[in-house]
Amino acid sequence: MYGQNFTINKEPVIIGIESSCDETAAAVIRGRKLLSNVIISSAAEQSKYGGVVPEIASRAHSDAVDCAVAEAVRNAGIALKDIDAVAVTYGAGLLGALLVGLSFAKSFAYSLNVPLIAVNHIRGHLAAAYLCEQTLKPPYVTLLASGGHTAVIHTKSYTSFEVLGATGDDAAGEAFDKVARILGLPYPGGPNVQRLAEEGKDVIAFPQSLVKNSAEMQFSYSGLKTAVINYCHNAEQKGEAYSRADVAASFQRAALEPLVRKTVESALKLNVKTVTAAGGVAANKYMRETLSAACAKENIKLVLPEKAFCTDNAAMIAAEGLIQYLEGNFAPLNINACAHIPLK
Ligand code: KG4
Ligand code: ZN
Question: Measured from the CA of 279, which atom of ligand 1 is nearest?
Answer without folding.
Answer: 1
